[in-house]
Amino acid sequence: MSSEVSNPTGFKKVLHVEWDAKAGAFRGLPKEWAAALPKGTYKEVDSSSKSLAPHLRAPAAKDKKRKESIFGAWRRSQAPMEKSGQNDKAVISLPYNVVHEMHVRPDSTTATGFSGLPIAWEEAMKGSGISPQEVKANPQAALDALQFAMEGPPPKKSQAPLPSRRTVNMKMGEALFFNKDVTDPRTCFKEFHQLGQGASGIVYSAIDDRKGTERYGQRVALKYCDLKELDELKTEIAMQSMSNHPNVVNFLEAFLTERHCVICLEFMDGGMLTNLCDTKRRICDESQIAYVIKCSLQALSFMHRQHRIHRDIKSDNILVDFSGRVKLADFGFATALTRSTMKRQSVVGTPFWMAPELIKSQSYDCKVDIWSLGITAIEMAQGEPPLMHEPVMRALFLITVNEAPKLNDRSSWSESFNHFLSKMLVKDPASRSSADQLLLHPFLQDTAKPQAFGNLVKAKLGRGGK
Fold first, then answer.
1. The one catalytic residue among 144, 208, 269, 312
2. Which CATH number does 271-461 carry?
3. Is 312 one of the catalytic residues?
4. Is 156 within any annotated ligand binding site?
5. Which UniProt keywords apply (predicted)?
6. Per-residue pLDDT averaged across 198-216, rounded?
């Protein structure tokens, strides 16, 4: 009685593909895969080569016929065939779901302190200002900074439950409104003056010339943005319009033209807080710094209670005016936390003001805004944020490995101010104070009056808004 061997089931053909550093090419790729790669990056494997590991060598000639007898019939019946009449030739598809993994490791013998870096990353590392000695001492922090620089463009206490993503989307949809009656703002606004230009667009001040409207004769700010960014702009408009607070720049309306999305905002005649930051002389005293930070914290407290994060707090995005008002602006990076995303991971913001956990691509929450505002307080006191003169990648590295920043000359500032900063600039976000906690700090109990601060703005900036 003869026994029969059944056809195999659940059969998988495992390919061993490896990178040959000496040859500068892949070894072991099927020809169909190799054809999809640039020329010179594939090298055929010599099946008789003794350099291959035993389990990778081709079967001996005496075994070849036997293997064919066992698997031949099944392969011919199961494998897809080419249409050219070669009915016994199996077709190997092109690869899919390919993941390119890099094997990078510390290496003190190289100029960068790493081996295995892609060429572009290696060149960036060489110009980063991070020495091999620093890499050796803090390899993960250096790699985090490098990865952030190359790939970057990532609440525990609240008074309301986290909303669902559906609820957030519904509220954003309700808040989004375009005035379709205006297709070109130049027809109903006059006296345009350019205030600034950035990556997100150009900002002008202009006078509303629409008679019979509540803003007739008032100066407003018009932000012209590329229509290609409309999806992101819709989020910015919705986030800002939902943040109706005395310390947030008011969203008024928005228009769509053939080329631009134009966002109409409340006009702040003093411009950016940056104009009050000077490295050569101290413009703001402690009471004025305390006033600005208190106003900013009031806005953040409101936002954070609604589970929203600004994510780009810095002096450029805090506006002031001649009456002493202080308001947060530019909600281009703002986002909302939901029950499904209690923390965020996307990396956004401006490097020198970024919190350590954001640079390291860790999960983060509203506390990133607190760190950034603490850096802004130092900026007001010293004229610029810490590490401003370092290359960006080195600054990112140092933010994660250095101790939390402090004032350069702590003795020239009050103990209360120094302590206040120490509660904001805590590297562990869980130990960092919240906006509500900071508003109770003694440093904010004796701030400048709005009129006094407005007089300072007017004296230093003059016609800053025009």
1. 312
2. 1.10.510.10
3. yes
4. no
5. ATP-binding, Magnesium, Metal-binding, Nucleotide-binding, Transferase
6. 88
